[in-house]
Every structure is written in structure tokens, then in C-alpha cells.
Automatic annotation (TrEMBL):
<dbReference type="Pfam" id="PF11835">
    <property type="entry name" value="RRM_8"/>
</dbReference>
<dbReference type="InterPro" id="IPR035979">
    <property type="entry name" value="RBD_domain_sf"/>
</dbReference>
<dbReference type="InterPro" id="IPR000504">
    <property type="entry name" value="RRM_dom"/>
</dbReference>
<feature type="domain" description="RRM">
    <location>
        <begin position="143"/>
        <end position="219"/>
    </location>
</feature>
<dbReference type="GO" id="GO:0003723">
    <property type="term" value="F:RNA binding"/>
</dbReference>
<keyword id="KW-0694">RNA-binding</keyword>
<dbReference type="InterPro" id="IPR021790">
    <property type="entry name" value="PTBP1-like_RRM2"/>
</dbReference>
<keyword id="KW-0677">Repeat</keyword>
<protein>
    <submittedName>
        <fullName>Polypyrimidine tract binding protein 3</fullName>
    </submittedName>
</protein>
<dbReference type="InterPro" id="IPR012677">
    <property type="entry name" value="Nucleotide-bd_a/b_plait_sf"/>
</dbReference>
<feature type="domain" description="RRM">
    <location>
        <begin position="20"/>
        <end position="104"/>
    </location>
</feature>
């Protein structure tokens, strides 16, 4: 980097006053927009993103200052990692991001839209069916979920958000097997598992990608 960048970060400069725009430093060069957005997701809606890959920096705008403050407070003692590289987060001097006319913003906007679709629950999910008679006795409350076309990272938060629409989710484990991203998800009640499988099997989490393939697991817990 040229010398100016280094001066800015030398020493412990006084932290800026809270802003809903967060400045992320030392992000890996190959990181995706969706991965950066996923840092902010657990804390609230992410409303804008600006990636400065040449400087290994990004700006993330949250919907509210409260969400940004919660995020900074959470990540101050626990340094977040992207692709196993530590990332540094602080408040930005900017109050909001104006990115309308910048190049390369289309990808960031597409990633934001995909993520907000999950957050607002605007996935086209049917409600639980009414016919109760189809539940098989002894059916497992555990679903095995395979996610195909994994174009965006699917986090535990995202899975929990989608599946908890159908009942209380007790546990989720994610793992990769045979080069496929999979999850085991346990409901409190097998009826919830049944509804979730009927409603979600074959659905996409994001537009045209991250397709859910759902079966009942042989495990009961």
C-alpha cells in the first residue's frame, strides 16, 4: 500500500463516534460480498456494502445505529474471521454509504437482495398444511438437509431462520460430506419436521441457487 494508508492506522487513534456504517480492515482478497454481509446478519438488516478489494477493506452499512453498536460490541472481544483471516471492525466516519454511481456495485446489491429475502421471510414458503392425518407414527423429528448449488454461504443463522417458521428448532449441525454441504436439524416435535419437509423440499433459499433437498434422518436426536 502507499504510505498514506499506513499513517491512518498507526497508533490507537481515538475510536470514532458510533455510526451505522462500519469500516472493515484486513479482509481477504478472495472474500465474497455475501461472506462480508454474513458478519452483520446476526445483528440486524444490512442495508449497503462497499468493497475496496484493492485495499483489503470494506464498508458495511447497517439499518440502524443500534445494530452497528451491537455488532461492534460483540466483535471487540471476539475478532471475527473471514476465510480464517482475522478482520478488524470499527465505526466509519461516514454516516451512510452513497454507492449508487460506483462501478462493481451490482454484485453487492445482488448479494444484499438475496440475503434480505431470507431475512424478511419473503421466501415463497407455503403455510403448514392442514391435513393432520398424514403423520406416520414413529417419524423422526430430525431432518437431513442437503444444499445444492451453494452459490452463497448458508449459515446456521439462515437455516435457523427458515426452519423455525415451522416449529421449535432444538439443534442444527452443518458438515460437508461427499463434497456436499449438509445439515442435520432437530425439531421439538416430529410434526414440525413433517411440515417443514413438505413445504421446503426442493425450494431455493436464494434466487435460483442453494436448493434444499430434505429427507427424514434415521437419527432420532
Amino acid at each position: 500500500a502507499n504510505g498514506n494508508d499506513n499513517k491512518k492506522f498507526k497508533g490507537d487513534r481515538p475510536p470514532c463516534s458510533p455510526s451505522r456504517v462500519l469500516h472493515l480492515r484486513k479482509i481477504p482478497s478472495d472474500v465474497t460480498e455475501a461472506e462480508v454481509i454474513s458478519l452483520g446478519l446476526p445483528f440486524g438488516k444490512v442495508t449497503n456494502l462497499l468493497m475496496l478489494k484493492g485495499k483489503s477493506q470494506a464498508f458495511l452499512e447497517m439499518a440502524s445505529e443500534e445494530a452497528a453498536v451491537t455488532m461492534v460490541n460483540y466483535y471487540t472481544p471476539v475478532t471475527p474471521h473471514l476465510r480464517s483471516q482475522p478482520v478488524f471492525i470499527q465505526y466509519s466516519n461516514h454516516r451512510e454509504l452513497k454507492t449508487d454511481n460506483l462501478p462493481n456495485q451490482a454484485r453487492a446489491q445482488a448479494a444484499l437482495q438475496a440475503v434480505s429475502a431470507v431475512q424478511s421471510g419473503s421466501l415463497a414458503l407455503p403455510g403448514p398444511p392442514t391435513n393432520e392425518g398424514t403423520i406416520l407414527p414413529g417419524q423422526s423429528p430430525v431432518l437431513r438437509i442437503i444444499i445444492e448449488n451453494l452459490f452463497y454461504p448458508v449459515t446456521l443463522e439462515v437455516l435457523h431462520q427458515i426452519f423455525s417458521k415451522f416449529g421449535t428448532v432444538l439443534k442444527i449441525i452443518t458438515f460437508t460430506k461427499n463434497n456436499q454441504f449438509q445439515a442435520l436439524l432437530q425439531y421439538a416435535d416430529p410434526v414440525n419436521a413433517h411440515y417443514a419437509k413438505m413445504a421446503l423440499d426442493g425450494q431455493n433459499i436464494y434466487n435460483a441457487c442453494c436448493t434444499l433437498r430434505i429427507d427424514f434422518s434415521k437419527l432420532t436426536s
